[in-house]
Amino acid sequence: MPYIIDGKKISAEIKDELKVKVSELNKEGINPCLAVILVGDDPASHVYVNNKKKACEYIGIKSLSYELPEDTKEEELIELVEKLNKDDSVNGILVQLPLPKQIDEDKIIKTIDPYKDVDGFHPMSVGALSIGQKGFVSCTPAGIVQLLKRSNIDIDGKECVIIGRSNIVGKPMSMLMIRENATVTVCHSHTKDLKEVCNRADILIVAIGKREMIDESYVKDGAVVIDVGMHRKEDGHLCGDVNYESASKKASAITPVPGGVGPMTIAMLMYNCVKAVEL
Q: Which range of residues forms the domain containing residue 144?
């Protein structure tokens, strides 16, 4: 049986550490504050936003919530973001994605002050990551690095294969793993001989967006498997991009879905909110 990497436990550790840090900041008269903007009625987005509010409450971060109707105009959203940019009491701004089709997501991301960009999506944040400078790192990739480190999984010198090249996970993940001295290969829909490439991986990170696609035939004996996917089966149960039962036969360590990468994303968002105070 592989070692099961417990994202719930590790995220709880991070939140407890942040709680202590925020308490110390409070003693200095500093009160970290996160502004969350939600546009429309997407049920999944509502769940994410509520989880973020609960995490803020637990750690002691003040949270401001702006829930806007589905038909909100782009200019109205930009106006609100610019107002929060100027508000010195707000340390972090998060606009929940996806946005309704009349709003250009890219434009909104670029409107957020880079020093308040706790999602780590602003081009300035991405640029800082690519050249190894200080800045916000996208929460899911940052959470994966913490999962590995806090599970005593050595990254240095290891061969890492990432399946998926999205701006939110794949690309920043590759840069973070390079920063940790891994040798990195990024695979995508045009990759030839995907199984062959995956079978070289000491650490296999899967963010492909296809339900239970990766089975034991993609996994090298003793590899660490990190599953970023999240899907709902017909029976209502959640699963990832990895066929957990099959991949577990070969993996030395694996993340479950749910309870693996998911909780880490919110923990790292909270980490970025506290970091925003320092920046």
A: 139-262
Cis ω on the peptide bond leading into residue 258 (within 30° of 0)? yes
DSSP alpha helix (H) spans, 152-261: 170-179, 194-198, 244-247
Residues marked active site are found at: 52, 96, 119
Residue 133 lies in a domain: no
Q: Confirm if 26 and 73 have CB atoms less than 8 A apart.
A: no
Q: Considering the entire predicted model, what is its pTM? A: 0.94
Tokens of 193: 């001989």
What is the pLDDT, as a whole number, of residue 132? 87
Based on the fold, state whether residues 167 and 101 are members of the same structural domain.
no
The answer to whether 159 touches 200, Cβ cutoff 8 Å, is: yes
Domain containing 64 — which CATH number? Answer: 3.40.50.10860
As for how many domains the chain has, the answer is: 2
* Residue range 221-241, pLDDT digits in tens: 999 999 999 999 899 899 999
Nearest Cα to 160, choosing from 170, 146, 151? 170
Do 233 and 144 belong together in one domain?
Answer: yes
Asked whether the beta carbons of 206 and 240 are under 8 A apart, the reply is yes
- The greatest distance separating any two alpha carbons of the chain, rounded to the nearest whole angstrom, comes to 57
What distance in Å separates the CA atoms of residue 54 and residue 31, rounded to the nearest whole number? 17
Rounded to whole angstroms, the Cα distance separating 237 from 58 reads 27
Answer yes or no: is 76 within a domain. Answer: yes
In tens, the pLDDT along 121-132 reads: 999 999 999 998
CA distance 105 to 96: 10
CA 226-230-233 angle, to 5 degrees, is: 125
Per residue in 173-209, pLDDT (tens digit) is 999 999 999 999 999 989 999 999 999 999 999 999 9
Which token pair is 264?
């880490």
* pLDDT tens readout for residues 134-145: 889 999 999 999
